[in-house]
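Before relying on records like the one below, remember that each one covers exactly one chain. Contacts with other chains, cofactors or solvent are not represented anywhere in the record.
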Amino acid sequence: MPRQGDLREQPYRLILLAIATREKSGVLTLKRGVLEKEIVFDSGAAVDCHSNIATETLGRFLVSSGKISETQYHDALSSSAARGMTLEEWLTQRTIIAPAELNRAAQQNLGRKLLEPFHWTHGTWHFSHDAPAVEMPHRVRVPQLIITGIGKVEPSETIESALHDAGALPLYAGSSPLFDAAELRLSDEQRRVLAAIREGTSLDELRLAAASTEDLDRFVFAVLLLGVASPERSAPEPPAPQPAVVIPQQTLAPIASADELNESRPQDSFEALGLDRNAGAMEIVRAFLRTAERFLPTRYEDNLREKAQEIFLASARAYAELADPSRRQALIDRHAQKPDIKPAASPAPAEKPRRTIIDPEELYRQGRAAAAAGKLRNALGSFEMAAECDAQNGTYAAEVAYCRFQLLISPAATTLKALKNAIRIDPRCGVAYLYLGKIQETLGNHVEAEAYLGRASMLMQRPRF
C-alpha cells in the first residue's frame, strides 16, 4: 500500500480494503477539487470523519433526518457557542434529544459521510499514521461499508465496466475471502443470491430471478471484491492423513541468538514490542504474541534461559501497559512532553490554511433560482457542484440530468437512465418522477408519462419528514 496516490489509479474502495486487511491506524485524506475529507481509522475500522461539506455536520444531519427542527438547530448552535459548549452537549442537557438517540444519529451520520467518496472518480489521497485521539469513536467496519457504498453510491459506469460480458461467468463461494461473510448485514434478497453463489451459478442465471438487475450487479461486484464470491471453484480439500503418520509442523518463530539476548533491551513499551506509537489494539496483541513466542524461556538452553525469561517478562509488562488505553495514552503524552533538540534558527510551522466550507443546499437554491431565470448553464454548474458534495441526494442528481437534457447535452435515453438512477438513490424523489413524466410526454409515451406524473404529484404533496 503506497502512502499517497490518485483516485483514478487507486479507487476509494481499494484503499479501504488495503487499510482494513492490514488493520491500519491513521488518517486518510481525500481531495477532489475544493472538496476535502479526513477519515480516521483505528485497527482497520473507520472511527471518525471530517469534511468541508456543510451538510455533513451532525447538526445539519439531525435537521435533515427530522430529529430536530431548523429553529431548534439554529437556537442550539448560537446558544452552545455562546456558552463554550458543543452542540451535542447543549442538545442533551436541554433534553432536546436523548443521548442514546444522539449517539445513533452520530453513527448514521458517520456512515453517510464515509459513503460519499465511493462516487469520487478523480482526486488525490494521502494516508498518514499520525491518528488523532477520537473522544467518542463510532466504529464502521469496512466490509459492510463496501457492500453499502457499492450498492448505493458507486457510479453505474464502474459496475457496467467491471461486469461487461460477464453474464456467463460462473460464480462460486470464495475459497479465501478477505472477511467473514457471516458478519455482513444483508437483506433477504442478498442472502438468497449468496446462497445461490455457494451452490455454483452464473450471473445470467441470477439475473433471471432478480427483482432489480442493477442492484444484483452491484451486490455481485461487491462480494467479488471482498473475495466472498469467486469465478473459480475452490479445489477440493485433500484427504486428512491418518493420525499415526501425522508429523507436527514447527510453526514457532526462530529463537534469538546469544548475542541478541545479551543486547540491552529498550525501556519504552512501544520499543519493547517493536511498535509505532500509533499502533492499534490488534497490532499490540499480535506484537506481544510474536515476542512472547520468540523469547519463551522453555525454548532456550540453561545458560540462556534466564536472559530469555527477563525479556519475556519485560514484553509482558509492556503489553500490560499498552493494552490499557489510559496507560498507553499517558505514555504517549509523556513522550510528547519531552523537549526536542532543534536548531536555534528553526522556523515556526506554517499555519494550516482554513478550509472553504461548501454548502450543497445553498448551491441547490442558487441553481433553482438560476433555472427560474432561464440561466440554465449557471444552474447546471450549481446543481453539479451540489451533486458532487452529496451523491446520495436524488434531487440533486435529477436536477443535473434534466438540466443537461434541456441544454441538449444529454439525449433523452441517457437522461431517462440518469433519472431512474436518482430514484434508485432516493425512491421518494418526486422531482425525478416529474422530469421522467415530462420527457416521456415529449417522446409521445403518454401512458408512461401519466404514471410518472401521478407518482410525482403524490410524492411532492407529502412532507419529507
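The chain is about 50% helix and 10% strand.
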